[in-house]
Amino acid sequence: MTLLERLTRMRSAISDAAHAAGRGDEDITLVVITKFHSSQLVRELAALGVHDFGENRHQEAVAKSAELADLAVRWHFVGQLQTNKAKQAVQYAHAIHSIDRTRLVTALGAAELPAGGDAIDAFVQINLTNDPGRGGAAPEDLEPLAERVLETPNLRLRGVMAVAPLRAEEEPEAAFARLNDYSERLRALSPEATAISAGMSQDFREAIAAGATHLRIGSAITGNRPPAS
Ligand SMILES: *Cc1c(COP(=O)(O)O)cnc(C)c1O
């Protein structure tokens, strides 16, 4: 299958899942995750009408966003972000989906945004497992973390984000239902923070059914990732 075929197939699967859930295409933003892939692949996808791209490694995001500065695309950072990279991250990131601790919020708040740049879309990442190694804040930290984001002019609180547990541990439906509850808690604090970043190549249908607004889809569109370099 070509890139265009994979993209077209995914777009129509997303549309079908949205309609099945009584939702419209306009409710859902597709972020194509291009980690480990070349800048050339991003260029091809942009030519096919993709506007939102996601990366999970800071150095790679710095390099690609610089190489592709001529494209009108938006970069979403979806990986672990070290506080000492916050200053650089605000230079390329339209959105950060992995806000998981107050120290990171503080560092992003202290960074200087590019001249004329908008506040960065911020998603609080919640860990849906009991393993702290999986990334994301513990659910009890949701409100305190969100409060800190709301106090930070550099950031615009958009919603929650999560990665589903492995299927062997829990079905995505159950995990995403919990994420939807966290989203409700967040909206009680900040009614505009309605976004839910969830759903990858293998679980986007379940995520859409559970209210996801931002899908992070990699391999089903890009093909298998080359080994990490
Ligand atoms: C890699 C990655 C994705 C995309 O995963 P696929 O299974 O390739 O669709 C989504 N979210 C995050 C945080 C990732 O690191």
Description:
The protein has 229 residues and is α/β, with parallel strands linked by helices. Helix content is 39%, strand content 17%. It has nine helices and eight strands. The chain has helices spanning 3-20, 39-47, 58-67, 86-92, 102-110, 142-150, 172-189, 204-209, 219-222, and strands spanning 29-33, 52-55, 74-77, 93-99, 120-125, 155-161, 195-197, 214-217. An eight-stranded parallel β-sheet has the order 7-6-5-4-3-2-1-8. Helix 3 links the parallel strand 2 and strand 3 (74-77). Helix 4 packs across helix 5 (102-110) and helix 6 packs across helix 7 (172-189). The radius of gyration is 17 Å and the shape is globular. The chain starts with a helix and ends in a 7-residue tail after the last helix. The mean pLDDT is 97. It binds pyridoxal-5'-phosphate. The site of pyridoxal-5'-phosphate has 14 residues, from strand 8 and helix 9.
SSE arrangement, N to C: HEHEHEHEHEHEHEHEH
Estimate the helix proportion, in percent.
Answer: 25-40%
Give the strand tally: 8
Distance between the amino and carboxyl termini = 25 Å
Overall pLDDT metric: 97
Strand order of the largest sheet: 7-6-5-4-3-2-1-8
Poorly predicted runs? none
Shape, per Cα inertia axes: globular
Bound ligands: pyridoxal-5'-phosphate
Structural class by helix and strand composition: alpha/beta
Query: What amount of the residues lies in strands?
Result: 15-25%
Largest sheet: 8 strands, parallel
CA-atom Rg in angstroms: 17 Å
If helices are DSSP runs of H or I spanning 4 or more residues, what is the number of helices?
A: 9
